[in-house]
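**Entry details**
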Amino acid sequence: MIMPGSMHTSGQDDHQDTCNSQEENAQNSKKEEKILGKKSCNKQEVNHQPLLSTNVAHLIAAILVIILAVIATKAGTSNSDDLKKHLLVIYEKYIMFWRSAPAGHGRPLGHHQPPLAEPIDVLEEFPHPEEFYRRYTKPRRPAIFRGLARLHPAFQRWTDDYLRKEFGNLNVDVEVKKKEDRGQGSLDMSFAQYLSIYSKEDYYMVYSVPEEMHGDLIVPRSIQCGGLQHMLMDVVLWFSSGGTRSVLHYDELDNINCVLDGSKQFFLVDAERGSSHIEFDHMEGRYSSVDVQHVDMYKFPGLRDVPWYNVTLEKGDCFYLPYKWPHHVRSSNTRNMAVNFWFTRMLWMNETDCAGKQLSHVTSMADFVTREPASLRKADIISQAEGYEQMTLLSFTDIFSEYTTDGPNATEEAFDTLDADGDGLLDIAEMYAYDTARFLRLFPSFPMED
């Protein structure tokens, strides 16, 4: 970390060099100096020092801030938890200024320590849904699918000319900054208009793929049966001239991301091993306000130790990003395009639904039902029981009582209704097997999706 004191010293050195150069020139051409009114530099003129060094001034300022903060706390004018955090930052940043800055401070995410060497599975084809669920979705393990974005007709078709000709009349939403800012606005414009300006503006198209474009996309074979086919929430197009930066965040959905042009790099954190290191100070959007390009390791000290994976997707690759895995995404500084398939987390798979089905690697989205709102809502409710294979009435009550508020005995009645075999233990499978419409009526207070 460069402190103001060291910056001041550097400035003196630069100034002294300039003065020496001027003195040499003055000796060689005093006549010119007199005409131009140049001022000779000498040691007396550059050695004026302030009464206090910059470092001492910093120390005094920090102590005064602490005294004022303590007074404010005793007066009840400040939140004590926030105050403690700010005081810790002051202590480390200014009072302990002689120590070197933490690794990665002021640099992009990922410079604090090397990425984990543990390999992430790399597959050459989309696995069967049963294998995908058992090996990846249920345990929340990421996987790279090398080259499989090439299966999308869009991989070859979606040039600017083709998009302008076929879909130029569609209206799209456009973010006004390539570096994500959750408070930023968006613009509504035609696809043709976006195509005419995106290479010159700081714009980023993030938009649900319209039905008119579904024929150019396939549905990954891994989510075509077993109930996964009903969990597909949305398919989103991410399109820019490159250089985009996301915030550090996590999603409450599973995700298969396919890169159609350019490349993407993921700073990826294991949800179980690394999430505790990250301060998600905007829980309403499940993201951290850390500046991903200039990380303040004093303000976000947990990031000093967060373990991470480096996942780079080249043009043509796809990637399964598990539910609630924190990540930050950077795109290459070239035309960049990707589609991602967002699907609701499922805690049980109906394997009989896959029996005898012929699954294709090139099933068109145009022939696929992309979402069933009732099934998605049901899955959202059941997902509250993550970590339970079976529930007693007591554990069921702890999890679901706030959603079954239709009468004093509603929670117990819901439990008895769903416990099909009456053994006093409610299996997750029993919840999924129950009729969807009747299931939803058991949980009238579960919040609706926005």
